Amino acid sequence: MKTKTIYEKEILKDIQDLPEPMQEKLAKIIRLLKKEFVLPELKKKSATEEFLSVCGTWEDDRSIEEQIKVIYSSRKSSTKMEKVF
């Protein structure tokens, strides 16, 4: 079996002489680590990238100050929610 990285080589060297039951336990630990830590992180990145691809990027030729001015000027005061809080 050809290894891709020096770490794979080191791991194989470390477990090579261990008894089979110990190798089985280590395999379970590795699967657990991948399931609990590696895969969720990949899913999280994937979800973020997917969300951003749907949203697109903000495009506006106005300066930030002009955009803020428009946002504030388009706000309206309302007393509808006063009774709720």
From TrEMBL:
* Superkingdom field: Bacteria
The protein in question is named Uncharacterized protein
